[in-house]
């Protein structure tokens, strides 16, 4: 099986093997990545985290777990510009610096192994965590508690004061949605570093995960444009046109399609 096939096998398992699936994303970008060995190594990290946790009911251990991770060096990557390694789970396990989403994936796997209740929340711009039933969220980058006003402030810092906090921002994230978000992050980071082939690998995974948006097809179309693949670019632009509800965007897409050479078919 290819790394992509193994990725989807993990996702389709019952329950989904979210952490291992994210490791197979790393294997897609680096043939030397060995997810099986990384899973073995992870047990050592889980033991180190466990030894440092206080004697509390498991329902109260999520925040101490995140603080313990921080004590062990796990923190948000503040390198600028942000590098793809900040969104590759295997790299974050090695360097202990990463995006909130990847730190969250590590926390979720530790919590699963230690039977600590914890779920992911696909909050816009900054992935968060929550103990089911709690009245607050947790920042995977250190464990800070965030109440509704804190979430509103975080949202405004990311998107401006006109962005309204909605119930959909606080919903529990499904494994597929977390992995799709991770793939989008990697697509953008690889693109920002002019690694178009790696970005294309991530862009394809985003689409294969389903429910892709017009923006997802546009992102891959732009990569095909950079790689001089007009037929593939046309395919994605046409799909973006079908999905778009924005009349201005639809007009621009139609114009862009008109400038592409006719679709060539080889017999």
Automatic annotation (TrEMBL):
Residues 44-183 form the Protein SirB1 N-terminal domain. It holds the Pfam family Transglut_core2. It comes from the Bacteria. Signal peptide: none annotated. PANTHER family: F-BOX ONLY PROTEIN 21, SI:DKEY-261L7.2. Belongs to the UPF0162 family. This is Transglutaminase family protein. It comes from Pseudomonas fungipugnans.
